[in-house]
Description:
Elements: E1 9-13, H1 18-29, E2 33-37, H2 41-46, H3 57-71, E3 76-79, H4 93-97, H5 104-132, E4 135-140, H6 168-187, E5 192-199, H7 208-216, H8 230-237, E6 248-251
Parallel strand pairs: 1-2, 1-3, 3-4, 4-5, 5-6
Amino acid sequence: MSFDLGGKVCVVTGALGLLGREFCRALAEAGGRVVPTDLDHTACADRGGHGADITKPESVTALRDAVIARHGRIDVLVNCAAIDEKPESPATAARDSMMENYALERFRRSLETNVLGTFLCSQILGSEMAARRSGSIVNIASTYGLVAPDQSIYRRPDGTQPFYKSPAYPTTKAAVLGFTRYLAAYWGAAGVRVNALSPGGVENGQDPSFVENYRARTPLGRMAQPTDYAGAIVFLAADASRYMTGANLVVDGGWTAW
């Protein structure tokens, strides 16, 4: 059972993001031919990829056609693109992020990217895999697709709550897990494996009090580094996981263990 991707063509959405960049690097180091995709076409093209808006069918279709024209096939799809909202205005963030006040348009925007985008990429690119009767789709979910956000970790030492984790992110990531199971069952006979990876929080310049709260809430006592997910993404993409489908690989430092 090999972790060597052996030239497999790997499309990674959200490739310019924190985890997306790391996934691209890990897959390339494992021998994959990586096609990064994100909204910025120029930045993707500079990295050997192709830009796309994953919420628009015509854009995803153009991405598929470009990959097929250049590489002849698609072997791996990593659905990483997602909206994980950050506070826009510190003065109103706490009020605006509360469930009671959360804007419908913000909820809809997350649904379109996190759920509809995952659906469209799987439908349009995954159909190529199903036609060839081979492939691996990895949907990036989250621990918040499994458990509710602990709002207290966002609280400052003085007791103030600068913002609340929104209702949109956990809802959409739970939907990704349901879609993963659906697609695994639907395309199993076609030789396409579909699994999810649920990462924990990644340290990325957050407020020190939040980082400390997160560490205290995690059995391993720290937030993740982006490199902590390299082995998991390669495992799910490669033949090493060839008898694995419809599963959710949780890599969270033990966050969901208690």
